[in-house]
Amino acid sequence: MDNGKTTASARRPGGQRRADAQRSIDKILTAGLKLYSSRPGVSVAEVAEAAGVGRVTLYGHFPSRTELAKALMERTFEETEAAWQSVDTSGPADEALDRVLREQWHLMERNRNLRENVLGDVSPQWLRTRHDPILRRVEALISRGQDEGVFRNDLPLSWMVTTLYSLAHAAADEITAGRLTAEQAPEILSTSLRSLYRP
Amino acid sequence: MDNGKTTASARRPGGQRRADAQRSIDKILTAGLKLYSSRPGVSVAEVAEAAGVGRVTLYGHFPSRTELAKALMERTFEETEAAWQSVDTSGPADEALDRVLREQWHLMERNRNLRENVLGDVSPQWLRTRHDPILRRVEALISRGQDEGVFRNDLPLSWMVTTLYSLAHAAADEITAGRLTAEQAPEILSTSLRSLYRP
């Protein structure tokens, strides 16, 4: 089936071939996000099947699990950025941070299986680096809170950002492990960070 | 070289063969721990070379990177247990926990490259599960502190244990990332947990 498709598209003009390829990529990423988010332990073969493309086609676009994992994570980072834009960050920084946290939490909770599926394929360092744009916004908000006197200033700013990043992912993992419920997790996370950040 | 050795040991009595195998395993684990702890990105071939055994011998004992990673981690868990035993946990629970944390910190800091080397080979869940014996001791100490009134009791006990586990590993990773120094990290970790645990 794959070979047939390749031969057919090879006879088409370049623009058409590129459009076909983009459609395949979209189908793979859409099916991949859905599957990876549904449960841990998803195989690349399952993604190809759910996307309705052959394995050869999938490997043609994503030569390794790592390539696929990175492409799937890039899609979710776009959502993360959009979620931040939707939050009102005016007013006292501690209240604004709490609103941001709860808005971002929905994405983290929804994506916790996705994260588990990609952790063997991309390094924690890669994940952290790709979170940099959002973490720089968090940092600016914490810094504003220090100026306003609502956050402590006896800990390095970068460490305060890291505690938020670590504890938020830890809370999501605790749901997966069955030690927290999805209902109690955001409140517990918020309470913990308030204790950690208060002067 | 490997084939020669195998043939020679095949002619020996079973006890001698087992002793040879145990010596190979010891050499591999000793060299592996040293290499994995020295820097990230170590290959299995490098471990074999440092241990002075052939790759075939290494793969005979550890058929995959995962098997080797698990065996190396098991060795460090024995040290973790011994480090706990060496700490005086009498007296107020908050002071005892701080002593435990500083003692365990030395191991975590020393083993942070090891951890980074195995993270692609064993799951975070496996690592957490193998920490269970030590985390149950942490839990008992936090629980005692709640009874003594030195620790808060408005957060789930399991979550308090998780915050210690997550923030300790985060602090070690911050040293690797160059955002904390090895000197400041234990104090910052201790300060953070005191804020998080106080009633």
UniProtKB/TrEMBL annotation, chains A, B:
Give GO MF terms, alphabetically. Answer: DNA-binding transcription factor activity; transcription cis-regulatory region binding
InterPro entries recorded:
Homeodomain-like_sf (IPR009057), HTH-type_TetR-like_transc_reg (IPR050109), HTH_TetR (IPR001647), Tet_transcr_reg_TetR-rel_C_sf (IPR036271)
The question of whether Transcription regulation is a record keyword is answered with yes
What is the protein named?
A: TetR/AcrR family transcriptional regulator
Q: Where is this region: Disordered?
A: 1-23
Instruction: Name the UniProt key words of this record, in alphabetical order.
Output: DNA-binding, Transcription, Transcription regulation
Q: Which residues bind DNA?
A: 43-62
Ranges where the HTH tetR-type domain occurs: 22-80
Q: Would I find DNA-binding among this entry's keywords?
A: yes
Taxonomically, the superkingdom here is: Bacteria
Offer one Pfam family short name for this entry.
Answer: TetR_N
Q: What Gene3D superfamilies does this protein's entry cite? A: Tetracycline Repressor, domain 2
